[in-house]
Amino acid sequence: MENFNQTSTDFILLGLFPPSRIGLLLFILIVLIFLVALFGNLSMILLILLDIHLHKPMYFLLSQLSLMDLTYICTIVPKMASNFLFGNKFISFIGCGVQSFFFSTIAGTEGLLLISMAYDRYVAICFPLHYPIRISRRVYVSMIMGSWIMGSINSCAHITYALHIPYCRSRAINHYFCDVPATLTLACMDTWVYEYTVFVSTTLFLLLPFIGIACSYGRVLLAVYRMNSAEGKKKAYSTCSTHLTVVTFYYAPFVYTYLRPRSLRSPTEDKALAVFYTILTPMLNPIIYSLRNKEVMGALRRVMQRIYSMQL
């Protein structure tokens, strides 16, 4: 690593797996998780497109979540697997910028999408008669487009800064993907301004949405508690607990990682926490939403029956 050409524009990704039998087992496990996430999210998107009963705002938002999770895992895992299998840990300067752009875009966009999903459930449970007006087609399409646009703008700002600072130390990034804060540890200038912008972005795109979601679900749970229908309570609790599980898995590791000062962070801990939101969450989301949602399971049965009848 010390002999790496300092004039090269390539970076080295040190990776996630140790060069041992345990590393190989972890690699196989990650590949299996990747395949489950790939199949689960593709299936969720196709199911929502094919079944007319799922053509509702909640499920269009869910299809966007699956699309984001697909982008997450496809941006990071194939390159990580290739590096481990072939021993080539290099990534070009442009390749690193592209990977960072997609990661940062999805991170911000998904944070905003989750609060849109929470708002959808809040209106559906607390103001059911107003739902068609408050969550009209124009409204939920605007929420989706707004999430993508704001996430992309935020990502462009971060990546533009990262690509225009000088790197004069070892090109070895102690991570398994091009996470901008990990990359900036190699910079030969003071990056306190960028660290402050990371704090602001994390607050705006993750912490504040998380607080908003917590407040909205506080109102939702109060409304559910006052319901007279036992079946209505059960359905509302099921929907809310599903979304809260997804929200916790996503926000908690992100906020814990990026709101801490760099002096309190360690590369090993950052990589372990990153596994949650880049690999585990994309696998868990479609499983959680399908197994705990009767409408999704019903749609799956209908689509399977339709495919079976076409084969006959």
UniProtKB/TrEMBL annotation:
Q: Where in the cell is it found?
A: Cell membrane
One Pfam annotation, family name?
7tm_4
Q: Which SUPFAM superfamilies match?
A: Family A G protein-coupled receptor-like
Q: How does it sit in the membrane?
A: Multi-pass membrane protein
Q: What CDD domains has UniProt attached to this entry? A: 7tmA_OR2T-like (cd15421)
Q: Which UniProt keywords apply?
A: Cell membrane, G-protein coupled receptor, Membrane, Olfaction, Receptor, Sensory transduction, Transducer, Transmembrane, Transmembrane helix
UniProt-listed InterPro entries = GPCR_Rhodpsn, GPCR_Rhodpsn_7TM, Olfact_rcpt
Q: Where are the transmembrane segments?
A: 22-50, 57-78, 90-119, 139-161, 199-224, 236-252, 272-291
Record's Gene Ontology CC terms? plasma membrane
Q: What role is this protein assigned? A: Putative odorant or sperm cell receptor.
Task: Tell me the protein family, please.
Answer: Belongs to the G-protein coupled receptor 1 family.
Q: What is this protein called?
A: Olfactory receptor
Q: What's the source species for this entry?
A: Catagonus wagneri
